[in-house]
Design a protein that fits this description.
Strand order of the largest sheet: 4-3-2-1-5
Radius of gyration: 28 Å
Strand content: 25-35%
Largest sheet: 5 strands, antiparallel
Distance between the termini: 83 Å
Structural class: alpha+beta
Number of strands: 9
Number of helices: 7
Order of helices and strands: HEEEEEHHHHEEHEEH
């Protein structure tokens, strides 16, 4: 109950800002956030991640607060389009809110504005290999190829192993041709 009393002033302040979403604080802890619709069997909460039906008996309190998509739109509108650092901060906020697709889009915008932005590259999982940014898979392919390995049917073979493999494939083809 102490957490609820600390949370309510903030929720009331946020609800005065014209929000359209609710936060359901559940008995025994936990919360569900989204657009709430009254149903005979309980409260249907629709969020970015799907819908859930919450029985009224589980709800300790219902407070109005901005929905994450509303907050996102406000932040996006205030963010300068040509500023890679501002876009990066927006992407980090999106990640913290669970908005992965939007975060990825903003990280890609950051890279379009600043191709060498380390933070955005790292968040996208890119690695630097020989002075170039690339995905870990691409870096692995470049590394193996630089060692002289060749990819054949999903396996990496040395030049010697490739000669042995090709000879074995020719022998196999000859045997199959003779069998016909």
């Amino acid at each position: 109950m102490k957490r609820l009393s600390l949370f309510l002033p903030l929720a009331l302040f946020l609800s005065a800002a014209g929000a359209r979403a609710d936060i359901l604080l559940l008995r025994g802890g936990g919360r569900v956030e989204g657009v709430v619709k009254e149903r005979p069997q309980g409260l249907l909460v629709e969020s970015l991640h799907g819908s859930v039906l919450v029985p009224r008996s589980r709800v300790a309190a219902r407070v109005r607060a901005p929905y994450v998509t509303e907050l996102y739109e406000r932040r996006r509108e205030r963010t300068k389009a040509g500023d890679p650092e501002a876009r990066f901060r927006l992407a980090l906020w999106c990640l913290a809110q669970g908005l992965e697709k939007r975060a990825r889009r903003h990280l890609e915008e950051v890279i379009a504005l600043d191709p060498d932005h380390e933070g955005a590259r790292a968040r996208l999982g890119h690695v630097r290999f020989r002075g170039r940014w690339m995905t870990p898979d691409a870096a692995r392919i470049f590394r193996l190829a630089s060692l002289g390995l060749v990819r054949v049917e999903g396996r990496w073979l040395s030049e010697r192993a490739l000669r042995v493999y090709r000879a074995a494939m020719r022998r196999r083809a000859d045997l199959l041709a003779r069998a016909r």
